[in-house]
Amino acid sequence: MIAVVIGVGGLGCPSALVLARAGIALRLVDDDVVERSNLPRQILFSASDLGLRKVVAGAASLVREVPGVSVETVDARFTSATAAALLVGAGVMLDCTDRLETRFLANDVSFAAGVPLVHGAVLGWTGQVMPIAKNSRGAGCYRCLFEAPPAEGIVPRCAEAGVLGAACGAVGAKMASEALRLLAGDASGVGTLTTIDLRSGNVRRIDVPQENQCAACGTAVRAVA
Hints:
The chain is built from eight helices and eight strands. With 225 residues, it is α/β, with parallel strands linked by helices. The chain has one domain (2-224): Rossmann fold (3-Layer(aba) Sandwich), CATH 3.40.50.720.
């Protein structure tokens, strides 16, 4: 089984490293290049990687760290047009992007393709992780938590609000651990949102119930699945 890591950035780098060290085959998906501003929080990259494609530099770093690990690279963006091909052979996908529209798309594709998803996000000192899977009775999804993307500009992106590198490491490691649980057939964490605040040290776990009217996993969708 392959773990598909969408976004090789602040979350994708530590997630991929943990999974590689656990012996999991990876498919890295990103269409960006390494920039100097990435280096404080994207741990697979160094100054010698500046200007390189992220998937290429990330794969090379993983192979150096974990000789023999299987890493496939896809220099593309995760979109409705590319999603099906990117998930061929996938046992789990990790949404490590900072785009709200991609988070909703990953959630919807997860249910359509039957591939479990680990959502992760980080902003400033705080982050959140939520495993999502089809056929988990009573467990909600990302749309059950946030019905639809907010209007453009309402929620700042990481580049605008800033991100603590340590928060990326903590959230990325948590995402990888949840992915490993799902790959092992343990869905007990599905539908639970974990929030982490590195400034206060607080960790909260919130059960997200399935909403009957949810466009991704609600009653109408389940009836035709």
